Each structure stands twice: as C-alpha cells, then as structure tokens.
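Running co-folding for 6-hydroxymethylpterin-diphosphate.
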Amino acid sequence: MGILNVTPDSFSDGGVHFDAPAAAAASARAMIEAGAAIVDVGGESTRPGADGVSLDEELRRVVPVLERLEGVPVSIDTAKAEVARRALALGVEMVNDVTALRRDPELAGVVADSGAYLCLMHMLGEPGTMQRNPVYEDVAGEVTAFLEERLGAAVAAGVPEERICLDPGIGFGKTVEHNLELLRRLEVVARLGRPLLVGVSRKSSLGRLLGDATATRGTLAASLGAAGAAFAHGATIFRVHDVREHVEALTVAAAVEA
Ligand code: HH2
C-alpha cells in the first residue's frame, strides 16, 4: 500500500502533493507501476499533535486527486463518512479509518452499503494527545482485544468479515518499546484471523531507535528493516512511502519464507 498524503503537514511527506492534484495522481500511478497493490490517499494528517481538518477542507484536498485516479486501486484514509461516501462514488475500493469506526457513527453504514474493503486500526487516545505518556499492562493483548471488539462492531454494522483487515496502529498512542513489542508479538493479533496491515514506514520510533531522541521521522533503511520484521511476524499489507524499495525487500523476505 503506497502512501499519498494530500496534506500540508504530514510528518514525512507533508506538502509534497498538497494543492497539486495532477502531480499527486501521477505519484499514485507511479506507486502502482513500482509494485503497489493499492494507494492510500489521505487529506488529514494524524501525526502526533496534528489538528483535525474540516469536512470541506478534506474534500477539497482529496476529491480532485481521486477524480484523476480512475482505474487505479485506491484506499481512502479518512474517519469521515461523507469523505468516504464521495470517495467510494469515485471508485475507491477501501476505507482506511484510523479511528476504527469510533469517530463518525455513519461511517460503518457507508462502508457496509458500498461493499468496500475496510481497515480498522488501533489508536490509544487522539492524535492531539496520544503520545503523552501512553500506558498499557500488556500492549499486544490490549490492542488485540480492541481490534476484536471493533471487528465485531463492523460486522454487526453489516461489513462482511472477509472484507476487513486489522492494524495495530504503530505510533498511535505508543512508545518506542510498545511499538517494538507489538511487532514482536504480532502473532497475538494475527490470531483474530484477519490480514494484518502495518504502517511503520518512516515513523519517528525508527529514528529514536537509532539514537535521535527528538527524531520526527525514520530513514528508508530503518523502514525496510521494520517491514521485514513485521513480515516475519505475520504482517501481509505494508503501508509505505517508498514503494519500490519495499517491494524489493519484501519480495526477498517472502522468497526466504517460501
Ligand atoms: N499511519 C498514518 C496514517 N494512516 N493508517 C493505517 N491503517 N496505519 C497506519 O499506521 C497509519 C495510517 C500516519 O502516517 P502518514 O500518513 O505518513 O502521516 P500523517 O498522518 O502525518 O499524514
């Protein structure tokens, strides 16, 4: 899954595709060329400390890009039912909701009615405050219990279970240690029986692990190492900025396992 943030403030690619829908669409097509199965288009940054954006502004950012992506497999990274509705009408195949259907009560119905795929992600707290001292007794167990509950809620709302993938939410209300333990114990989450999506690409934990306590992003090499480890522990969908490099690294990792 290639990442296309149409935002001024995303933590690693903010501004690159903002207010330039033709260039953004070209980048999305280039990601598919490079081997991505799907491109995740997002108009609201969820980096730690980010402010939310209004419905109008989110639509203004993503719709011109989606209109230029006919025939390209796209996922919409949104928590808003109206953004999802518009995106699905434009042919989007998947809704990626970092709030796991908790923020907008209408989103579950929109996804259910459309027959789209859905990603449910774990987050402790809200982007504005989530990195202020997150505490767990058993991070893998608690994330799994949360995802199990949200999976049940989505199915109860009419989204077929076969259409849902789950994401432990690396960096969403988690310390570096929490993120590492989650990746190390991904098998616990995998027991829920759904495909696991992991987004660790360029995340600040990677920079911190390499000794920069104030890092806001990680390097490509660190991202590839993390993706390989996530793959070894059961992840099957990788949300990444650098598609070609991840396709190459994961093709080799998969060949070793085969
Ligand atoms: N991470 C980000 C955004 N959306 N969705 C899923 N399912 N999993 C993730 O780990 C995830 C996500 C944050 O990364 P990015 O989009 O690069 O930055 P920003 O939120 O600042 O736009």
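Result summary
The mean pLDDT is 96.
Residues 3, 5, 7, 10-12, 42, 45-47, 77, 96, 98, 119, 121, 167, 169-170, 197, 199, 239 surround 6-hydroxymethylpterin-diphosphate (CB under 6 Å).
Job closed.
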